[in-house]
Amino acid sequence: MRVTNQSIFNAIQYHLSNITDKLSQANELVASGKRINKLSDDPLGLTQSLTIKSSLKNIEQLERNISLGRSWLEASESAISAAQDIASETRAIAVQMANTTQGQAERLAAAETVDNMIREVVSLGNSQVAGRYIFSGAKTDTIPFDTSGTYSGDTNPFSIKIGRDSNIEVGRDGSDTFGTIFTDLINLKTALQNNDVNGIKTATSALGSINDHLSSKIADIGSKALRLDTKEAILADLNVSSSERLSNIEDADITEAITDLNAKELAYQAALASASKLMQTSLMDYLK
Known about the structure:
The chain has about 290 residues and is mainly alpha-helical. The protein contains seven helices and four strands, in the order αααββββαααα. Helix 2 (about 45-95) packs parallel to helix 5 (about 180-195) and helix 2 packs antiparallel against helix 6 (about 195-250). The model has no long low-confidence stretch (mean pLDDT about 85).
C-alpha cells in the first residue's frame, strides 16, 4: 500500500505538535516550579491544594484578628493602669485633705486638682485604637464618656474571632470597667469644695475600693492576652504544617524537572531533524 506525501506530512505534523506540547509543559514546570499549573495536571491534587489555600487564608485572617485583639488589650491595660494610678494619687490627696490641719483654701485648691484628674480619667475612658473606642462595648464608633463621666456606650463588649467557633472579648463595657471611679472622684471634688471632712473620708474609702476593682480588670486583661498568645502559637504551627502539605502537593522536583526538560529538548531537536529528512525524501520522490 502506497503511503501518500500528505499522510507523511500529517504524521510528522502530529508528532511535532505532540512533542511541542510536552516541551511547553516541561518549560512551564521549570519556570513556575509548580507541578500543578492547571486542572488537567492533577485534578485531585488541585482540589487538595485549593482546600489548603483556603485554610491558609483563614489562618492569616485569624492571625490578623489576634494582632488587632492584642493591640486592644494592650491599650486597655495601659488606660486602666493609668486610671488606677490616678485613683491612688487622688486617694493620697483625700487622706491629706481629711486631716484637720488642712483648711478650706487648701481643700479648694485640691478640688481643682481632682477636677483635672476627672478630666484625665474621662480621656482615658475614651481611648481609641485605629479610630475605634475600646471602652464603648460593641458601639466602637460611639464616644463612651462625656465630661461628667456619664456612659453612652454599649454593655456588650466588642469581640474578635480567633477560631472556627471561638471568640474572645477584647473591647470592654466602659461602665463596668471603670466602675464608680467617676462618681467617687466627683464626690471627693464636691466634699473638698464644701470643706466637708466627713465627705472627704467617705470618698477616701471609696477610692480604695475602686483601686481593687481596677486591679481585677487588669488581671482579666492578662488572662485574655495569655489566651491570645496560646492561640497564636497554635495557628503558627498550623500555618507551617499546612504550607508544607501544600508544597508537597504543588511543588515540582526542580532537578528532575530540568532533567526532563533537557530530554524533551533533545527529543524535539531529533524530531525536527527526522522530519526534515523525511520531507526531503518525499520531495525527491515527487520530483522523480
